[in-house]
Write a structure and sequence with these properties.
Blueprint lengths: L6 H8 L61 E3 L5 E4 L5 E7 L4 H5 L1 H12 L4 E7 L9 H13 L3 H10 L1 H4 L5 H11 L4 H10 L3 H13 L7 E4 L2 E4 L4 H12 L12 H4 L18 E3 L5 E7 L4 H19 L4 E7 L6 H12 L4 H10 L1 H6 L2 H11 L4 H10 L1 H15 L7 E6 L2 E7 L4 H13 L2
Parallel strand pairs: 3-4, 8-9
Antiparallel strand pairs: 1-2, 2-4, 3-5, 5-6, 7-9, 8-10, 10-11
Helix pairs in contact: 4-5, 13-14, 13-16, 13-17, 13-18
């Protein structure tokens, strides 16, 4: 059974974020913005985003060619392709940042960026380019904030507004009166607030924001912040030293090694593994049609009460209505939050080795009051016997440690991607996470949500 082969790939896959479509989720708890862990990114030249900077059907809002940089002695403006930059236009190295104004990690990288400006931008060695990558399903105000900065750019103050939005992120992010805060920012920067508010109401820069996202996706960007130092890729709020090394490489004319060609298993992580029945290439048990339009990854804990409620009260109906009809494929990953979570997860995986993962899962949740309080080793063997499994083979599987490694790897992945509540669910389309549901939802809300998601296809 594959245990670690696809660990990095899976983390990357689960950290993908939606770039335009956001499924309504009943009052979810916001999670930290995911960042890409692995660097399986095409090492191609930074793509040029074709951006609209002239009149459009929502009004004549034009970014001025000359912008205030907000940094003494540093020029700013628009590149020939319309990108907003600050620094020397002819600088030998370009840092292109893809960012989300509501992303907490994007604001945390500011101290690193300030060091880069001091060491390289002010000395004319680096030009800094900013592109929008709002993670709409995680940060519903990020796209509005992008419009705020661009509307300030109509009056030549994109960068001062950009800086203010990040540095004062906690004053507007998640607040109900965030629009009035944006207007106050405009006043503080000396903008014509009437023109600013008119621009903001028109939302004229959606095409530009979408073009930024498209360029980022084409380069393999899946989380924020993401940077390209010429062709060197840096993911997340990394320290200055991580940038400095790549800056030195870029200044020396070096280029990253070409990305190896991905295998079929790596490009189709949720496809069935022909060598492991009822499991995906990533080593996860699944049920449903692998060609279903929606993959739901369930991250669950056998000892969790809300996980039990979901399995006993919600899952049977979801299976009947959506899984058995080919609309949804479900894959399962383990989260370990209690003293007996690990042995229970091992029991499910060992049953899975004999093709009965989900029958054992149902048994474990239904009988959780017994094994949590009793002798789980004996009871698990009894469950295996009741499911007509080879009990000797089942017990040997529990003892050899292979399933423990797999389960613990699942738990590491869950923690890396910010899972705090169980059960949690990731909605995945085309290997990209488009929504998260943290916690238990009753059946009626699940049905409403899935009808919305599936009805949009």
């Amino acid at each position: 059974m594959k245990k670690t082969l696809f660990f990095s790939l899976l983390v990357v896959t689960l950290l993908l974020a939606a770039c335009g479509k956001s499924t309504p989720v009943p009052t979810p708890t916001p999670m930290s913005t995911p960042t890409v862990i692995a660097t399986a990114v095409p090492t191609m030249p930074v793509a040029t985003a074709t951006v609209a900077i002239s009149q459009n059907d929502k009004g004549n809002f034009v970014l001025t060619a000359k912008q205030e940089s907000g940094i003494e002695g540093v020029p700013a403006g628009l590149t020939a392709s319309g990108d907003l930059y600050r620094g020397k236009l002819e600088a030998p190295v370009t840092i292109t940042e893809y960012s989300d104004y509501q992303c907490p990690f994007c604001s945390r990288v500011i101290p690193t960026e300030e060091k880069i400006y001091e060491a390289y931008v002010k000395t004319g060695k680096i030009k800094f380019v900013f592109r929008n990558f709002p993670l709409d399903s995680l940060h519903p105000q990020a796209r509005q904030a992008a419009e705020v900065a661009l509307c300030a750019g109509v009056q030549g103050k994109f960068w001062p507004m950009h800086d203010k939005l990040f540095k004062a992120q906690q004053t507007w992010s998640g607040k109900s009166d965030f629009r009035s805060t944006f207007t106050n920012f405009a006043k503080e920067l000396g903008l014509d607030t009437k023109q600013f508010d008119t621009c903001l109401a028109a939302q004229p820069f959606q095409d530009r924001i979408n073009a930024d996202q498209k360029a980022g996706i084409g380069q393999g960007v899946r989380g924020t912040p993401a940077f390209f130092v010429n062709e060197w890729f840096i993911s997340g709020a990394q320290p200055y030293e991580a940038f400095d090394q790549h800056i030195q490489d870029a200044l020396a004319g070096k280029k990253p090694e070409p990305t190896p060609t991905l295998t079929y298993a790596q490009t189709h992580p949720f496809a069935p593994d022909p060598d492991h029945q009822h499991y995906t290439y990533l080593g996860d048990p699944y049920m449903g049609n692998p060609k279903a339009p929606l993959v739901i990854m369930e991250l669950s804990d056998y000892q969790g009460e809300n996980c039990r409620k979901h399995e006993l009260k919600v899952m049977p109906e979801l299976k009947k209505k959506y899984v058995d009809t080919g609309k949804v494929m479900i894959v399962f990953k383990h989260v370990l939050g209690y003293s007996k979570s690990l042995p229970a997860a091992e029991a499910a995986e060992c049953a899975g080795e004999q093709g009965q993962f989900y029958l054992m899962t149902a048994k474990l949740f239904a009988e959780s009051d017994q094994w949590i309080k009793g002798d789980e080793t004996k009871l698990f063997a009894d469950y295996a016997r009741a499911l007509n499994l080879d009990v000797d083979k089942f017990n040997a599987c529990l003892q050899n440690g292979d399933t423990a490694n797999k389960v613990q790897l699942d738990n590491q992945i869950a923690r890396r991607i910010g899972v705090r509540d169980t059960p949690s669910f990731l909605f995945i389309e085309h290997n990209r996470v488009v929504d998260r549901i943290p916690g238990y939802l009753p059946l009626a809300q699940w049905e409403k949500l899935l009808e919305q998601v599936l009805g949009s296809k």
